[in-house]
Amino acid sequence: MSKILLTGATGSVSSAVIRSLQGAGHHLIGLVRDPAKAQALEAQGVELRTGDLSHLRTIEGAFTGVDVAWLLAPPTPLAPIQSSNALWAAKLGGVKHVVRMSAVGAAHDAPNLNSRMHALSDAEIAGSGIPFTIVKPHFFMQNLMMAAQSIAEQATLYFALGDAKMPMIDVRDIGATVAAILANPTPHAGKTYTLTGPTAVGMDTVAASIGEAVGKTIAYVPVPVAGMVDMLSKMGMDDYMQVSMRDYLTSYSRGWEAQVTSAVKDITGVAARGVGEFARDFAGAFGKR
């Protein structure tokens, strides 16, 4: 079995990848900045290696002996630097295949900041000489948790998407798909996959699904993009993410990237979860008692 190194090992996506890989006999390695904050991973049998993607010298030896690497950088202005450092360290370590998390619609002319930033790193990995696979997940269903409080307390889903529909995806399905690629990367070499849920849904459908899960009627109230960004600012979201969310919400509202793909089922053999299943699984967060 393979030695698989995962960056962002304590984050939500990489945690989902790790859960999907466990029990299959692979040697899992988590690259973390602070091992003291990753003891839960170590308890699960994940080897910890220490390094900071922002500082190349701290990770130059971290990929030694690794067969396949999962490269994920958090959404910050430093992401292209962190991605470049990770890719170079993987090359120094002799990694045979890298799988990178990009973003839906990543392109140099994308209508949002985050996707343009990802396009820089996608181009770099494609020219690195290392066999690679790129995954581009759509809007995470877990982002709906931003509205959990208003749903639980006011039975209202406030969101800045108008009547647009999009094929949002559950993070658990991203994890399962990436895990399948990491476990057997050769068939996926040179390929890029956009990962979506099984259907494009509007927020009215999301509200109805959550309402069914919690046992009460949930209203969807569209709000202006600027109003939602202001709300996110008050929740502590930094400037980069405020701009990123503004651009994404504006683009999605105009029908950008509404196409559904079958990539999750094609790669894992299991259909992606719909918003109804997500709502049932997380009903407690939305106020079900």
Name a few traits of the molecule:
single chain, 289 residues, alpha/beta, Rossmann fold, UDP-galactose 4-epimerase, domain 1, two-stranded parallel ribbon, 16% strand
| Most strands sheet | 7 strands, parallel
What is the element string, with H for helices and E for strands?
A: EHEHEEHEHEHEEHEEHEHHHH
Intertermini distance: 44 Å
| CATH architectural designation of the largest domain | 3-Layer(aba) Sandwich
Assembly state here? single chain
Q: How helix-rich are the residues, as a percent range?
A: 25-40%
Task: Give a short summary of the structure.
The chain is an alpha/beta fold and 289 residues long. The chain contains eleven helices and eleven strands.
Describe the overall structure:
- The chain is of the alpha/beta class.
- The protein has two domains: about 5-135 and about 170-195, 3-Layer(aba) Sandwich (Rossmann fold), CATH 3.40.50.720; about 140-165 and about 200-260 and about 270-285, UDP-galactose 4-epimerase, domain 1 (Alpha-Beta Complex).
- About 40% of the residues lie in helices and about 15% in strands.
- It has helices spanning about 10-20, 40-45, 80-90, 115-125, 150-155, 170-185, 205-215, 225-235, 240-255, 265-270, 275-280, and strands spanning about 5, 25-30, 45-50, 70, 95-100, 130-135, 155-160, 165, 190-195, 200, 220.
- A seven-stranded parallel β-sheet has the order 3-2-1-4-5-6-9, with helices on both faces. It has a two-stranded parallel sheet with strand order 7-11.
- Helix 1 (about 10-20) crosses helix 6.
- The chain starts with a strand and ends in an 8-residue tail after the last helix.
- The mean pLDDT is about 95.
